[in-house]
Amino acid sequence: MVSWPLALTLAMLSGPPESLAVRECNADPLVMPGDTERALESTLLVATEDGTGSAVVISPDGFALTAAHVVAGREEVTVHSSDDTTTPARVVRIDREHDVALLRLETTDTLPCLDLSMVEARLGSDVFVLGSPGGTALSFSVSKGIVSAYREFADTPVSYTHLTLPTTPYV
Q1: C-beta of residue 127 within 8 angstroms of C-beta of residue 145
Q2: d(CA 110, CA 35)
Q3: Cα 45 to Cα 53: distance, rounded to the nearest angstrom
Q4: What are phi and psi of 156, to 5 degrees?
Q5: Is residue 17 packed enough to be buried (19+ CB in 10 Å), middle (13-18) or exposed (0-12)?
Q6: Which of 24, 144, 146, 149 measures 20 to 30 Å from 126, CA to CA?
Protein backbone atom coordinates (compact mmCIF):
# COMPACT_ATOMS: atom_id res chain seq x y z
CA MET A 1 0.00 0.00 0.00
CA VAL A 2 1.18 3.52 -0.81
CA SER A 3 -0.03 6.41 1.33
CA TRP A 4 -1.75 8.53 -1.33
CA PRO A 5 -5.31 8.06 -2.57
CA LEU A 6 -5.46 8.20 -6.36
CA ALA A 7 -8.03 11.01 -6.53
CA LEU A 8 -5.96 13.24 -4.21
CA THR A 9 -2.81 12.56 -6.19
CA LEU A 10 -4.45 13.43 -9.50
CA ALA A 11 -6.06 16.53 -8.01
CA MET A 12 -2.66 17.79 -6.81
CA LEU A 13 -1.08 17.45 -10.22
CA SER A 14 -1.44 20.47 -12.51
CA GLY A 15 -4.30 20.25 -14.97
CA PRO A 16 -7.89 19.12 -14.83
CA PRO A 17 -8.11 15.58 -13.35
CA GLU A 18 -11.13 14.75 -15.50
CA SER A 19 -8.91 14.82 -18.60
CA LEU A 20 -7.01 11.77 -17.35
CA ALA A 21 -8.45 8.28 -17.68
CA VAL A 22 -6.44 6.48 -15.01
CA ARG A 23 -7.69 3.04 -14.01
CA GLU A 24 -7.45 2.28 -10.32
CA CYS A 25 -5.16 -0.50 -9.24
CA ASN A 26 -7.13 -3.32 -7.68
CA ALA A 27 -4.12 -5.29 -6.48
CA ASP A 28 -4.36 -7.16 -3.22
CA PRO A 29 -2.88 -5.22 -0.29
CA LEU A 30 0.78 -5.90 0.38
CA VAL A 31 1.92 -7.53 3.60
CA MET A 32 5.55 -6.62 4.08
CA PRO A 33 8.16 -7.98 4.17
CA GLY A 34 6.56 -11.10 2.68
CA ASP A 35 5.33 -9.30 -0.45
CA THR A 36 8.60 -7.50 -1.20
CA GLU A 37 9.10 -9.29 -4.53
CA ARG A 38 5.58 -8.34 -5.63
CA ALA A 39 6.16 -4.72 -4.57
CA LEU A 40 9.39 -4.55 -6.55
CA GLU A 41 7.53 -5.68 -9.68
CA SER A 42 5.63 -2.37 -9.47
CA THR A 43 8.68 -0.15 -9.04
CA LEU A 44 10.65 1.47 -11.83
CA LEU A 45 14.05 3.02 -12.37
CA VAL A 46 13.60 6.37 -14.15
CA ALA A 47 16.53 7.29 -16.38
CA THR A 48 17.27 10.78 -17.71
CA GLU A 49 20.33 12.35 -19.29
CA ASP A 50 21.24 13.77 -15.87
CA GLY A 51 20.74 10.73 -13.66
CA THR A 52 18.19 8.33 -12.26
CA GLY A 53 15.27 8.18 -9.87
CA SER A 54 12.53 5.83 -8.76
CA ALA A 55 8.86 5.51 -9.65
CA VAL A 56 5.93 3.30 -8.70
CA VAL A 57 3.27 2.02 -11.11
CA ILE A 58 -0.14 3.09 -9.77
CA SER A 59 -2.39 1.91 -12.56
CA PRO A 60 -2.51 -1.29 -14.62
CA ASP A 61 -2.70 0.86 -17.77
CA GLY A 62 0.75 2.37 -17.26
CA PHE A 63 0.56 5.44 -15.04
CA ALA A 64 3.39 5.86 -12.53
CA LEU A 65 4.35 8.36 -9.83
CA THR A 66 7.85 9.74 -9.43
CA ALA A 67 9.42 12.82 -7.87
CA ALA A 68 9.01 16.04 -9.84
CA HIS A 69 12.70 16.86 -9.44
CA VAL A 70 13.61 13.60 -11.22
CA VAL A 71 11.80 14.60 -14.42
CA ALA A 72 11.95 18.41 -14.20
CA GLY A 73 12.21 20.06 -17.59
CA ARG A 74 11.53 16.86 -19.53
CA GLU A 75 8.64 15.70 -21.64
CA GLU A 76 9.88 12.11 -21.99
CA VAL A 77 12.03 9.72 -19.95
CA THR A 78 13.01 6.09 -20.10
CA VAL A 79 11.90 3.67 -17.38
CA HIS A 80 13.33 0.26 -16.52
CA SER A 81 11.43 -2.43 -14.65
CA SER A 82 12.79 -5.12 -12.36
CA ASP A 83 12.46 -7.69 -15.17
CA ASP A 84 14.87 -5.62 -17.35
CA THR A 85 12.13 -4.25 -19.60
CA THR A 86 12.88 -0.75 -20.92
CA THR A 87 9.95 1.48 -21.84
CA PRO A 88 9.61 5.13 -22.91
CA ALA A 89 7.35 7.26 -20.72
CA ARG A 90 5.75 10.69 -21.10
CA VAL A 91 5.68 13.23 -18.30
CA VAL A 92 1.93 13.87 -18.05
CA ARG A 93 1.64 16.17 -15.02
CA ILE A 94 3.99 17.80 -12.51
CA ASP A 95 3.31 19.31 -9.09
CA ARG A 96 6.56 20.98 -8.04
CA GLU A 97 5.14 22.17 -4.70
CA HIS A 98 4.57 18.56 -3.57
CA ASP A 99 7.50 17.19 -5.64
CA VAL A 100 5.37 14.62 -7.46
CA ALA A 101 5.01 13.86 -11.15
CA LEU A 102 2.75 11.55 -13.12
CA LEU A 103 4.26 9.48 -15.94
CA ARG A 104 2.46 7.50 -18.65
CA LEU A 105 4.38 4.47 -19.88
CA GLU A 106 4.06 3.86 -23.59
CA THR A 107 2.86 0.28 -23.39
CA THR A 108 -0.28 -1.69 -24.13
CA ASP A 109 0.58 -4.36 -21.55
CA THR A 110 -1.31 -4.63 -18.28
CA LEU A 111 1.25 -3.73 -15.62
CA PRO A 112 1.63 -4.84 -12.02
CA CYS A 113 0.72 -1.89 -9.82
CA LEU A 114 0.46 -0.85 -6.20
CA ASP A 115 -2.87 0.19 -4.74
CA LEU A 116 -2.91 3.78 -3.49
CA SER A 117 -4.77 4.22 -0.25
CA MET A 118 -4.62 6.66 2.62
CA VAL A 119 -2.90 4.97 5.53
CA GLU A 120 -1.15 6.96 8.22
CA ALA A 121 1.23 4.65 9.99
CA ARG A 122 1.59 5.07 13.73
CA LEU A 123 4.79 6.49 15.15
CA GLY A 124 7.31 3.70 15.55
CA SER A 125 5.66 1.58 12.84
CA ASP A 126 7.84 -0.34 10.42
CA VAL A 127 8.09 1.12 6.92
CA PHE A 128 9.61 -0.30 3.77
CA VAL A 129 11.12 1.99 1.13
CA LEU A 130 11.62 0.62 -2.36
CA GLY A 131 13.62 2.34 -5.04
CA SER A 132 16.95 3.03 -6.60
CA PRO A 133 19.11 5.12 -4.27
CA GLY A 134 22.40 6.18 -5.78
CA GLY A 135 21.56 5.24 -9.34
CA THR A 136 21.60 1.92 -11.13
CA ALA A 137 24.11 0.24 -8.80
CA LEU A 138 21.47 -0.03 -6.06
CA SER A 139 18.36 -0.22 -8.24
CA PHE A 140 15.34 -2.11 -6.94
CA SER A 141 16.57 -1.96 -3.35
CA VAL A 142 14.49 -2.35 -0.20
CA SER A 143 15.19 -0.56 3.08
CA LYS A 144 13.37 -1.06 6.36
CA GLY A 145 12.98 1.67 8.93
CA ILE A 146 10.45 3.27 11.24
CA VAL A 147 8.12 6.26 11.18
CA SER A 148 9.94 8.74 13.44
CA ALA A 149 7.67 11.79 13.31
CA TYR A 150 5.06 13.77 11.42
CA ARG A 151 5.89 17.43 10.80
CA GLU A 152 4.23 20.51 9.36
CA PHE A 153 6.12 23.72 8.72
CA ALA A 154 4.61 27.20 8.59
CA ASP A 155 6.35 28.13 5.33
CA THR A 156 4.95 25.22 3.28
CA PRO A 157 1.56 23.56 2.86
CA VAL A 158 3.22 20.13 2.68
CA SER A 159 3.10 17.72 5.62
CA TYR A 160 6.25 15.67 6.12
CA THR A 161 6.68 12.14 7.37
CA HIS A 162 10.08 11.67 8.96
CA LEU A 163 11.47 8.16 8.44
CA THR A 164 14.51 6.73 10.14
CA LEU A 165 16.24 4.35 7.73
CA PRO A 166 19.69 2.85 7.41
CA THR A 167 21.78 4.80 4.95
CA THR A 168 23.75 3.35 2.09
CA PRO A 169 26.68 5.36 0.75
CA TYR A 170 26.53 5.94 -2.97
CA VAL A 171 28.80 3.61 -4.91
Answers
A1: yes
A2: 20
A3: 6
A4: -145, 145
A5: middle
A6: 24
CA 131 to chain centre: 8
Beta strands in the chain (DSSP E): 43-48, 51-57, 63-66, 76-81, 86-95, 100-105, 126-131, 141-152, 159-164
List the strands of the sheet with 126-131, edge to edge.
Answer: 126-131, 141-152, 159-164
- Residue 8 neighbours by CB under 8 Å, 6+ apart: 118
Which three-class secondary structure state does DSSP give residue 54?
Answer: strand
pTM of the model: 0.81
- CB burial of 23-58 (b: ≥16 within 10 Å; e: otherwise) equals eebebeebeeeebeeebbbbbbbbbeeeebbbbbbb
Q: Element (H or E) spanning 132, and its range?
A: none
Alpha-carbon distance 40 to 70, whole Å?
19
Concatenated DSSP letters of 69-111: HHHTT-SEEEEEETTS-EEEEEEEEEETTTTEEEEEE---SPP
